[in-house]
Amino acid sequence: MRRATSKKVLRAAGLALAALLLPACAGLPTTGGVSVGLELGESTQDLDFLPVASGPIEGAGPEEIVEGFLEAGITTSDNWATAREFLAPALQRTWRPAAGVSIDLGTDTRTISSTVPVEEVEDADSAEVQVLLDLVASVDESGAYSDALGASTMPFALERMEDGEWRITEALDGVVIDAPRFATVFQGYPLQYFDLAWSRLVPDMRWFPRRLSPATTVTQALIGGAPSEWLEPAVQNAFPADVQLAQDAVPVVGQVAEVALTRPAADLDETTLSRMRTQLQATLKAAGVAVTRVQFTVDGRSLDAAVADVVEPTAEIGSLVLQDGDFGRIVGDEIVPVADISAQIDAIEEPIVSIDVAADDSRAAVQLGDGHVYTVHDDRRDEVDARPGLIEPSLDPWGYTWSVPEGEPSAVQASGSDPDVAPLAVANAWPTASAVSDLRVSADGARVAAVVAVGKQRWVVVAAVIRDSAGAPIELGDAKQVTQLTEPATSLVWLGPDRLGVLIGPTSPRLLTQMVGGPGSAEAAPSDAVSVAGARTSAGVRILGASGQLFAHAGSAWREVASGISVLGTRAGE
């Protein structure tokens, strides 16, 4: 047994010009170039490059052939043609590289062992090789990303071919890519789905090989696919099941995406067509495709599709703070009151623990020092939850205040705007968890994130919010584990529609920026950080220190922007 290093058996990887855009099949794309450095929102017309792995080296033994095959997973062009060179002819025809991706810690952590000792390779005609991987995540055939921590063994069978060279005759479908290079080879694309009320768009992150233009990739995934299993109870697809792409390409001409559909689309009503256009147009823009319009056609005839109305995010204006007894937005050196709620909050004499303000500023959920939760709006303050041990509450876009005791994670309740109506018990709230420390509903109201304890483990999880026809939350879908924490969390927020910010510590505070359905990254936080307020982007994050200092990003560092802050307020969905 030995620890393999690609330097011993592979030629150095180079860079080559990106291949021309090729049509991709439904599901995980299997054709097209792999680009380095294209970020969401950047122009897709920039010149892209491909990382290139080497093919088999003449005279390589079984272990070297397997190692080279694994390395070739970084070269996705021509349906992983380079990786197929390591396979026997029969396996070349049946191997399915797009079946998924196993993401391991790194190439130097792979342990490769063979049933044939090195000194006996010259006399052997067959061999079995096992590779021990230290997995961190996986991507399934639909492009959905999941944490997959732990060791995993991959078996291979090899035979000596007629020309004397070793080739793989048995291998699992899918490819292996090390975590440091995963984001170089694959790109995250947030597919957009409607909520159950057809009023908001909800992202569902998928990972596909980078290519010169993702227009075909994301269109095929949206029209021919389905939402992730965990999210499906809270969203819907505007595209009917019998409507498919009529051709395997979506050209973008003059910033117009030309989408040819099958004949059932010709019989759709105006409302369905407008929702289809809105959903696809938003998906393309989120994928970084420079489009101003989506044009549907059937048999060459254009379909007249309008744009559906959806709720757009409100503008961000200043951080919400309670400073020297005054609550409002801090703009420069001034506190600008929030109409309808600032006066009521300023009049509260008891200590205030947290303040969560509705997106339209119409109300706030406030937790006081005694742990009780209140709603504040107009000239009223209503107590909505007085159970012991409550964590900080979270408002949702439908006007419900979510609250739950730390030691009873399944006892989530949602209180509406009418104090005379009993709170709703939200069913199926983390039934396997023993504790919950943080809870935040997303801005679209279709998802809820939480930090829960399951046994001795701490997890950041998300779940779909299932609502009735009036928008009342009645149940959660099954929880999806987003990432495991090694330290307690002190604060949880949303950073835009598809990322979470988790303040962890408290001895050496760090801010974890975690994609929902993707990898995360961590950075040092101010040494005495106690809470965080989210924003549309990571740059807009604000952190409160124990001594009342307010910090904002200044490049890779933190800069103090205010002092004397007793409560850092949050905004619903952030």
Provide a descriptive summary of the structure in words.
There is one protein chain. The chain is mainly beta. Helix content is 12%, strand content 39%. It contains 8 helices and 42 strands. Strands 1, 4, 5, 6, 7, 8 and 9 form a 7-stranded mixed beta sheet that branches. A 5-stranded mixed beta sheet has the order 23-22-21-20-42, with no helix packed on it. The chain is globular, with a radius of gyration of 26 Å.
Topology of helices and strands:
Layout: E1 2-3, H1 6-9, E2 14-17, E3 49-52, H2 62-71, H3 77-84, H4 89-94, E4 101-104, E5 111-114, E6 126-139, E7 145-160, E8 166-170, E9 175-178, H5 179-185, E10 186-195, E11 201-209, H6 215-224, E12 235-236, E13 252-253, E14 256-260, H7 270-286, E15 293-298, E16 301-302, E17 319-323, E18 326-331, E19 334-336, H8 342-346, E20 352-357, E21 364-368, E22 373-377, E23 380-385, E24 394-395, E25 401-403, E26 413-415, E27 424-425, E28 435-441, E29 447-454, E30 457-467, E31 473-476, E32 480-485, E33 489-494, E34 499-504, E35 510-515, E36 520-524, E37 529-533, E38 542-545, E39 550-554, E40 557-562, E41 565-568, E42 570-571
Parallel strand pairs: 4-9, 14-15, 20-42
Antiparallel strand pairs: 1-5, 2-3, 4-6, 5-6, 6-7, 7-8, 10-11, 10-12, 13-14, 15-16, 17-18, 17-41, 18-19, 20-21, 21-22, 22-23, 24-25, 25-26, 26-27, 28-29, 29-30, 30-31, 30-32, 33-34, 34-35, 35-36, 37-38, 38-39, 39-40
